[in-house]
Structure formats: C-alpha cells, structure tokens
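Example record for the data management plan.
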Amino acid sequence: QAVVGLLDETGALARVAGMFSARGYNIDSLTVAATHDPQVSRLTMVTFGDDAVIAQIIKQSRKYIDVLEIADLTSSDHLECELLVVKVGATASNAASIARFTELNFGIILDESKSTRVLQFTGRGAHISAVLAELTGIAKILELARSGTAAIERGSSVLGLAEPALVL
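Corresponding structural encoding:
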C-alpha cells in the first residue's frame, strides 16, 4: 500500500492514475478523500509488484507537482480498512441466518424489507473477501458496493504534507 498526499486540484487524481496506466501498472484498490486540510486529498493505493516495480512507481509519482508526499506502508506497521455494503435476498427461511451472520461478523443491518436486507461490514480486505464468500452460502447476493482500502500508519508517525517528501 502507498499513501499519497495530493493537492486537491482538478485533474490531480487523473494525472497520477494516468501515470499508472501508461506504464502498465495495475491499481488493485484506490481510495481518495479529503483530509483535515481542505487543500489536500489523501490517496490510498494498493498495487502489487516486486521491490523494483514499487520503487519505480514511487519515483515516478514523486515527479508530479500535485504529489506532496508518498508513504509506502507495505513494510510498516499500519491499519487498513475496507467497507462492504451488500444487498441480499431475504426469505422466511434465511432471515434469521442473515441476522446471526451479520452480528457474528460485526456487521450492521442498514435496511430491511420483506425480500431484502442491506448489510454493512468493515475490516481488512481479506476479512471483507471472506465475509462475502461466506455470505454467498447464506443468501443470494443481489448487489454490492465495496470501497477501496483506507490505510494509516500506527503510532505517532503522520503523513507530513507541508512540503514534498518521501517516507519509507
């Protein structure tokens, strides 16, 4: 995972994502949102490659004026979370199982109708994938929305966005 501080300007995300596609790198997850500074967005990106590929991605990303800082969280102690919102088919025979499954997996039932339930789960990507796989055995998945990964380093280290820098 890499966390990037970006100036919140029109086209900044498109330029960074375009650099990835132009070089044939795949982005497995991409999450962008405002930070406590309204002029800066935080981009969390998950991509895979050997050390040389990751080093090249970081090097290329630093060339963009919109990029204020990059932190490679791959080998650092960090927390990550994804969001899954999923609509499942509910029947008289599976409604109790859906509710029990949701509770056991620390989920929330956001909406209930006669024939559907909308559930919310959060956790690491692997947990969300496991929840989704197990849920398919309980109820029919009708629709889902899954966020990208949001990540932050543990401890007192913070992404310093005052001037360009690289944190490894």
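Summary line stored alongside the record: Strands lie at 2-7, 29-34, 40-46, 67-72, 78-89, 108-112, 116-123, 141-146, 150-153, 165-167.
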